[in-house]
Queue: 2 jobs
Job 1
Amino acid sequence: MTTQTEESEVTRHEVERLITAAQDALTDEMIGRLTDAVGAGISLVDQVNRSGLEKAIPALAQLVNNGDLERVVQLARLYSSAQDALTEEMVGRLAETAGNGMLLLDRFSRGGAVHIVEMLEKLERSGALQDIVRILPELAERLDMVNSLLKCVETAALTDAQAPRPSGGIGPMWHMMTDPDNQASLRFLLTLGKQLRHCAVSDAAK
């Protein structure tokens, strides 16, 4: 019994010495900082309780567990790096590009482009759009031929307008009919007429 009492006395003296040493080591600045830290902690806990932030803790824990929080952090870093890399000139050019895009979209809407889109949808549903896409390359090639034909007609009209008028009679007519170039041209016109007639009859039969 005496031994236990002596051990208790020793323990009490050691605790008292520890408290005294801690009090001597603490300065007024350290006490003030500890007080501020404790006060800030209590204020933070109070704000968390009032805002209901504790309800977000399970969601945050799930984000941490599946790695989504790390990806969000990496995305934020990427956004921050991009923001730091953007100069004022680049921001101005991006803003100008966005403005031009909005202006183009507005003009596109006001110009009745919606009707064009509706027409394209109807062509798509009917299958005509695929036919147009299929024949469009061939049509582009044929346009060169049409352009050449129109140039030939224009040249022929100018040449005929500048040529002297024939005097008439059987002689000039006979000379014109016996000219090999005139005969080749007449044969070409006859062949073209036959082909046009054949195509017209075929289309009418359809």
Job 2
Amino acid sequence: MTAIVTGASSGLGLAIAELLAQRMPVVGVSRRGPSHILGDAADPDTARRTIAAAESLGAIDLLVNCAGAGVFGPAGSYVETDIDRVLDANLKSTIVFCDALFPRFKEHGGTIVNILSSAALTGKPNESVYCAAKWGARGYSEALRAEAKGTKARIVSVAPGGMDTPFWTERRAGFMDPHDVAAVIVDAIDRRINVTELVIAR
């Protein structure tokens, strides 16, 4: 059993990777920080390199897509690079890694966990592009789950509320501890019942 976790350098991704590493080999993916594979999770070459590294440790049966980035401001204030960054980190990276592993998970078994956000459930002011990316990832996850029906693949989507992580430039009082959120997610992965969607809020 081997897991791949994108966005594993900090915050929720790091907390999930650390918990999983207590029971199986984990290959983390990030643009920065103490991860196994450095690279853009939206780049298919990063996915190929990550999968090769994970296969050297054992059969891959878990993918956690936790890469993400946020650029916020009123509609009309975004430049093209802002839009590309948010869509790549939150949506394209999820598609790239799922497309790389979903076919084998359908045949041999495996779980995909796509970390969304409460922004995938409710439109929020000053978060139009971020919401668009997360709603897209939610739609992709639901379509993937429909396609996985009757196969050995399991698709779980998770929509956590605000967490006190480096995603924000300043500490967010009252936000959730990412370690608490990670514990809920890993517990859902371990459960024999088929958890498909989680909304986590304080």
